[in-house]
Amino acid sequence: MVFRPFHVGRCRVSDQIKFLLSEDQMPKAWYNLAADLPVPLPAVLHPGTLQPVGPDDLAPLFPMALIQQEVSTERYIDIPEPVRQIFRQWRPAPLYRARRLEEALGTPAKIYYKYEGVSPAGSHKPNTAIPQAWFNREAGIRKLTTETGAGQWGTSLSFAGALFGIEVQVFQVRVSYDQKPYRRAVMETYGAQCVASPSNLTQSGRAILAQRPDHPGSLGIAISEAVELAAQREDTKYALGSVLNHVLLHQTIIGEEAIAQLEMAGDDPDVVVGCTGGGSNFAGIAFPFLGLQLRGGASAKKRRIVAVEPAACPSLTRGKYAYDFGDTAHLTPLTKMHTLGSTFTPPGFHAGGLRYHGMAPMVSHLKELGLIEATAYHQNACFEAGVTFARAEGIVPAPEANHAVKGAIEEALRCKREGRSEVILFNLCGHGHFDMQAYSDYFSGKLQDLNYDESELAMALAGLPSVPA
């Protein structure tokens, strides 16, 4: 892609670039898409009985307040004031008009991005880490276990644990643990313990290592280890950074702010783009806009909602929509989702936060209903897009966010070919300051476009649980 510098002299003073809300304008409630779904979500099933799970089945892992949010169909759920007070440190997050990127691409499209890298942890993940830690502390919980891939979620929960005096133990996928040592250092700075997964601390980890001592790990394995430890102690719970309904709910503060900011700009998106691994940041930017569409009926503006995922772990574009476990050791309930199989291990590409075998049930359901689209790209194309963005807008995106950047650029180039002046919105979910080795590999030509093993995928899909239709 040829990069054309932005001509500063052509920019008028009235060409606003950033749109800011005051702290008083921060949303006071999360938006729950479950209230507006045209078809309800399939039930979560107990793996032993294949019957819908109840609150008591989830109680060993989550406090009751979060369980209630998980199953709620209320349209709006109040954000506790102590949580909003902490959010004020970085929220409302800015919305930017990417005028220099538009100029570089020569597109008639308007490109906006919501920037979540302004949080202390550098990503969107504190939007759910803070409320999860607060609800757990209110329930008397003293320790949280969790998993992390690239480390953004582990960093965020470690930050939240420090604020609320909760001990945090993070199981980080081995390949990311080795690739991103400074993420580990940040977690430890916040006071958390970070362990490479699979580990010898759990039965599930030891079983994996017995089969393959050099196993690169996966989010499914790390979840198994975190869940196993959490279930053993009454003062310990498990916290998840994506996938589940209550996590996606917490992230909708992103889209709620974006709606107000785009009104300030006098625009309304025709296309909304987000990267997808488990689905949290995608849900955060997309769900509030989908809600407007669903509530508006036939007269509502129809937007294209585009999920962009890695070609090396393409759950939405290649996975099967079926009931599956959320973890490799099969300790979790069964949820219906687009899955590559719970035993599937993705190759070790750099977007560690997108290396999950399944997609959030809510996002998967939307794909089945035809309300969203999905596409997949290899990592070199995504890094090329990220570099183009950085040289125009000045922000170096995280490898995960590069997928959203790539999706937005493709939409802008389509508008250029078609001569259409559409409004494109994407979520820049985090910065890449801890991912510079990946950029160095890209510039030196060492970054490989990794492909998953077709035979391993077939084997993983063949092992899906048998659930009667």
From TrEMBL:
The GO terms describing molecular function are:
L-serine hydro-lyase (adding indole, L-tryptophan-forming) activity; pyridoxal phosphate binding; tryptophan synthase activity
Protein name (database record): Tryptophan synthase beta chain
Query: Which PANTHER family does the protein's record reference?
Result: TRYPTOPHAN SYNTHASE, TRYPTOPHAN SYNTHASE-RELATED
Subunit info here reads:
Tetramer of two alpha and two beta chains.
| Cofactor (UniProt) | pyridoxal 5'-phosphate
In terms of PROSITE patterns, this protein maps to: TRP_SYNTHASE_BETA
Q: Which family does it belong to?
A: Belongs to the TrpB family.
- Domain of life from the UniProt record: Bacteria
Sorted alphabetically, the keyword list is: Amino-acid biosynthesis, Aromatic amino acid biosynthesis, Lyase, Pyridoxal phosphate, Tryptophan biosynthesis
Record's catalysed reaction(s): (1S,2R)-1-C-(indol-3-yl)glycerol 3-phosphate + L-serine = D-glyceraldehyde 3-phosphate + L-tryptophan + H2O
Q: Which Gene3D superfamilies match?
A: 3.40.50.1100
Q: What class of enzyme is it?
A: lyase
Q: Please give an example of a GO cellular component term from this record.
A: cytoplasm
Query: EC annotation?
Result: 4.2.1.20
According to the entry, every stretch annotated as the Tryptophan synthase beta chain-like PALP domain falls at: 88-430
Name the species this protein comes from: Sphaerotilus mobilis
Cited InterPro entries: Trp_synth_b-like, Trp_synth_b_CS, Trp_synth_beta, Trp_synth_beta/beta-like, TrpB-like_PALP, TrpB-like_PALP_sf
Protein's UniProt keywords contain Lyase: yes
Lineage of origin:
Bacteria, Pseudomonadati, Pseudomonadota, Betaproteobacteria, Burkholderiales
